[in-house]
Structure formats: structure tokens, C-alpha cells
Amino acid sequence: LDLSNCSLHSVPAGLPEATTAIVLDLTENPLTSLPDGSFLGFVHLQSLAVPLPLECPGGRDAWQDVTADRSSRLCQGQRNPCNSSVELAWPCPENSVCAPDGPGLIQCLCDSPFHGYKCLREGTFPMLLFGGILGTATVSLSLLLWGTQRRKAKSP
């Protein structure tokens, strides 16, 4: 994806739709910063060129090779932060596994059959119970409103 020399002052709003990009060029743009999370989901990104004043997203440790020339910085070979020897600041909770989610970013995915907050709930989501309660409440409220409001309706 070549976005070089497009007069970008900030990261484009549609950039999150390009998460399958392998090569991204942002050089020759007056970018002042790359907000945290700009590259969330960019797990396939292997080569990123940014203007020289900017650092590679995720820092130097998120890339295998970072080189700078007179006008740009080239970040190549995105590293998997889950396989890093550097201690993770927020390790994944029990019953979950670490997965990369972009340069220097991780996500914790619950192991089956766990789900919910910090993967503490075991089993599957109780769809039948949830649907039954929601359906009963909806029908009850509808009947109550129909019964109390039909006297206010004018007949033709």
C-alpha cells in the first residue's frame, strides 16, 4: 500500500481497513505522530516505511531490522511479541493464549471451553436461558403496553 507523498498530516481514517497489507509506505508525508493502536490488527505487515522523525510503531523491539536513511525510516520483519524473550507488561490470564495483534501489540484469546472476562467462565454461553428470559420479558411488556394503551387508540 503506497501512501507516500499524499500530504497526510495524520493517519488516514480508513487505514484499519487495510489490515492485510504486507508493505506500507508512509514516507514524504508531514506526519507528526503515529497514535497508539494505529496498526492494530496489522499482523501481516512485514515492511513499513515512515518519515524519519517518527519511530517504528511498537518500538525498535517490535521489528527485526530498523534502518534509517536521510529522509525515511524502514521497519522490516515484524516480530511476534508473544515469542519474545522480553517480559510482557500484561501477561495473558490463565486459560488463555497470547496472539500477535500488530507491531508490538498482543491480544489474549480464551482457550476452549473458557470465555468471558479474563477467560474465567467455563462452558458455552447460555443462549437458551438468555433467549428465553429476553423473549418472556419482551412478550410480557408488549402485552402490558397493548392492554393499557389500546383504550387510548381511536377507532375509525
Automatic annotation (TrEMBL):
UniProt keyword Transmembrane helix, yes or no: yes
Plastid in keyword set: no
Domain of life from the UniProt record: Eukaryota
Keywords in alphabetical order: Membrane, Transmembrane, Transmembrane helix
Regions crossing the membrane: 125-146
GO process terms (BP): positive regulation of osteoblast differentiation
Domain EGF-like per the UniProt entry, residue ranges: 108-119
Annotated InterPro entries: ATRAID, EGF, LRR_dom_sf
UniProt-listed Gene3D superfamilies: Ribonuclease Inhibitor (3.80.10.10)
Protein name per its UniProtKB record: ARAID factor
Species for this entry: Toxostoma redivivum
